[in-house]
# Entry
Amino acid sequence: MFFKKDCGDLISPQSFVIINIESEVKNMSKEKRLTLNAEKRNSIANVFQSHWERENSKVILNYNLAKENYNSLRSTMKELVEKIVRTHQPQEDVDTIRRMSNKYGSNGGELYHDNCFNFRYSFTKVDDEGNKVDDYDNVNVDFGLEPTRSFGYAYYRNELKEKGHNPDFLYEWQDERRNPRYYEEENACDKWLGYRNSSNEDKSFIKPKAEWENDFKLWVIGSSYCHTRNFAVDETTFNVLNQFKIAQEKLVEAHESIFSYVNEKMKKLRLGLKSYRYFDQAKSLADKLGVALNESILNESSSLALSVYSPENLASLLEDKVEMTREEKIAFYKKQQGATIM
# Structure
């Protein structure tokens, strides 16, 4: 049995089925082409942002290595600081003050269990008039989470993100401090980290700030004011101690670099997505950049806008042109560090 096509030609039943299937597939593709609106574009943008914040890029590598370096130095610093403090304040002196204070109260002397220590390197220099003058440098070594709050946001960046908070608020709205989102995110991050607490919170959960406060402490002679105690050290020891402070600063800088890197990409991406009309355009872009994107992230809604940026062009703007080798990555980090402890 044969069928007639519209043009009058006879075709076999098998060919007729194939033609109908192809026609149905084309019709289904047209019907299923998913259009985009502002909400869907925002959902797509979030997928790209999550990808860029987790990929093996220069800035992510630098952040991970900076955090590893800080953790390693932290262990070293505990041993060094205890050695210096006990050289200046032997344990037997601490025990004596404790006995005296137990017997005479505050008149017997003061002790404080502290995790903050100041060190001073004294030296002689020549001034502009050629005279020798005494001078000194100080370095503060703080084992708590609050040398600056930006350090806490940097150290726990990934954990805060996982909890749905935005530790990047410092940089995202640094010029818009009156923006309600700035204070909203600051409050959320501070509560999770333990910078802010309320009486009705679950006390079974030890927050990071409290955990860090008790991680390392030494009994020192003196009041609770850290800046009133200065332990003398030589130049070599001072430089080693200063590396700990530098490591903290490097981690904060690495956090800011991640934000800047991702933010620049997101500006280009959002501009391109605004012009995309269909999901398959965003999907094509995602495929070119190795971003896992599927329709399940979207809700049913209508779409706007005409397509101006092709996926090929936008992909070229968003790609990192050169992928570093492992050796280059290590060299890059060492260059960023600037100095290491010998």
Remarks:
- The first helix runs from residue 13 to 32.
- Strands lie at 3-4, 10-11, 111-114, 116-126, 132-142, 218-221, 230-232.
